[in-house]
Design brief:
signal; zinc; about 25% helix; four-stranded mixed beta sheet; periplasm; metallopeptidase activity; about 280 residues; two-stranded antiparallel ribbon; globular; alpha/beta
């Protein structure tokens, strides 16, 4: 997907008009029964047969569980469990799980443009050695690893454990992309050493100063899942990364009003069935 298209998604994510109105997907309280199916694209889709991530685990903790954004395709749940176990084995700390998807996926009213088909998860780049209290999980306070507008990580907040967590996630065969702040990508490029094959999956993106956004490939059997173009070859540490630290070119034309794209037919049919 082009950077222009991604800019559209970023703007859609923060669109005030959408944030003021609850989407029909947010009124769906339970997963839709059926064989698990990720439908549509990551930024315009839904899911049948979603499963809830178990809230009790020794390897991770789920934040803001009252918002019920801890649903996903079974492959996503398996990935979280797998990464949490690996982090525990290496004594990195406890994973802090943020937003996944709503019970039937679909569009949020703000905060995310993607996370719609049950294949995305936000994982905070904090690895507490002491498990968080229920109060901390209800009202979590993110720790930015990058100051707003900065082109380097904050040295006192960066740890080798964070870099290792991102590497472990990127090396998982089900992962196709991991979005992080450009300064975090730069830090990884500078510290990766000779093992750099995983770096091409780590993609610089706006914000993402305190978490990584992990995206999985379309699962087998999800025939209506729209795969994303694979990341470019190479480690992404050269001119592409440098371009994120250049001033944006001036706009030659005014920005056009943003409107959400039409839903995939299968998601339209699902909404019609659930809401009549």
């Amino acid at each position: 997907m082009s950077k222009r298209a991604w800019l559209w998604l970023a703007a859609l994510c923060a669109l005030p008009a959408l944030a003021q109105t609850q989407t029909p997907w947010q009124r769906i309280a339970q997963p839709v029964a059926g064989a698990p199916q990720a439908i549509g694209s990551y930024a315009n889709g839904c899911i049948i047969g979603a499963q809830a991530l178990p809230l009790a685990s020794e390897n991770y903790q789920v934040m803001r569980s009252d918002q019920r954004r801890y649903f996903g395709h079974p492959t996503l749940l398996a990935f979280v469990a797998r990464l949490g176990a690996e982090a525990r084995t290496q004594r990195l700390g406890t994973l802090l799980i943020g937003d996944m998807a709503m019970p039937a996926g679909g569009r949020f009213n703000g905060g995310h443009a993607s996370h719609q088909s049950g294949l995305d998860v936000d994982i905070w780049l904090q690895l507490p050695q002491v498990r968080w209290t229920p109060q901390q999980l209800r009202q979590p306070v993110p720790q930015d690893l990058v100051a707003v507008g900065a082109d380097r990580v904050i040295p006192s907040r960066w740890t080798p454990q964070v870099g290792e967590l991102i590497r472990l996630a990127a090396q998982d065969p089900q992962v196709v992309r991991i979005f992080v702040n450009p300064a975090i990508k730069r830090q990884l490029c500078e510290t990766a050493g000779g093992d750099r094959a995983w770096l091409h999956k780590v993609r610089p993106w706006f914000a993402h100063r305190a978490h990584m956004h992990v995206r999985l490939r379309c699962p087998p059997g999800s025939v209506d899942c729209e795969a994303q173009t694979p990341p470019p070859a190479g480690d992404g540490c050269g001119a592409e990364l440098a371009s994120w630290f250049q001033p944006p070119p001036p706009r030659s034309t005014p920005a056009k009003p943003l409107t959400p794209p039409p839903l995939p037919p299968a998601c339209q049919a699902l909404l019609a069935q659930l809401h009549g």
